[in-house]
Amino acid sequence: MRKYLPKIYLALVFLFFYLPIVYVIFFSFNDSRSLTNFTGFSLQWYEKMFENRTMMESIYYSVIIAIIATIVSTIIGTITAIGLSKSRRVVKEFVNQMDNLSMLNPEIVTAIGLMLLFVTFGITTGFGTLLLAHIIFCIPYVILSIMPKMRQLDDNLAEAALDLGCTPWQALYKVIIPQIKPGIFTGALTAFTMSFDDFVISYFVTGPGINNISTYVYSSVRRINPSINALSTIIVIGITIILILANVVPLIASKRKKRAELN
């Protein structure tokens, strides 16, 4: 019996994490508004989701803010990580500590701080403040993802490229960036996930008429709305497809590369 305990424990952990997701997906196809009694199969809640203009706008804002925040934070985070690798130890340690502090800091504190910052400078909250806040809290995650790759990078490679006639920019995008590409990809994926999923900071810095998915779901949680189950199901399916592609595509590319080398 003892040898089965780890497997039983693992099964219970997976059940704890994934049963609520399966429950939401199952009742997104329910014919009635009930969340406890399945009365029949129906796609009506998916139809109503696409007919709901407010919900569609929240999806649009979530996606567009996540994409822009990911692009900007990835560029800034990559440049910062590369710059830190060439900085003095004191500067590097200080920035790393500040980077860690921003991630360890409770989100509610960051949210209130950003809200007070915008109010102090008289900035009207809305799409701009929401986007700026997402860029700010995504940058540390990008830096954290890239820094380990920068530590593994051989400094002599960039110097050799410069000696062979490359300009600093050519050495950057032909030598350094290809070497740290996995860290950049991981940082970008983390930034997109954090931005798309954020609620606390978004709730404090958004303005009237600007809602992402998290704030919209929060405002709708007091009344039964099965369309939210349909929205959650689409998000889960989308994330699953992205994760499969993120893992399968590099695997296929590496296999093709090995075959090309053998041939």
Cα separation of the termini? 51 Å
Q: Helical content, roughly?
A: over 70%
* Total of DSSP H or I helical runs spanning 4+ residues: 12
Strand content: under 5%
* H/E series: HHHHHHHHHHHH
Mean model confidence by pLDDT: 85
Backbone structural class: mainly alpha
Features:
263 residues, mainly alpha
Account of the protein in words:
Helix content is 79%, strand content 0%. The chain is mostly helical and 263 residues long. Helix 1 crosses helix 12, helix 3 runs parallel beside helix 6 and helix 6 runs antiparallel to helix 9. The mean pLDDT is 85.
Task: Give a brief description.
This protein has about 260 residues and is mostly helical. It has 12 helices and no strands.
Compile the SSE list and pairings.
Elements: H1 5-27, H2 44-51, H3 53-85, H4 89-104, H5 107-120, H6 127-152, H7 155-163, H8 168-179, H9 181-197, H10 200-205, H11 213-220, H12 227-262
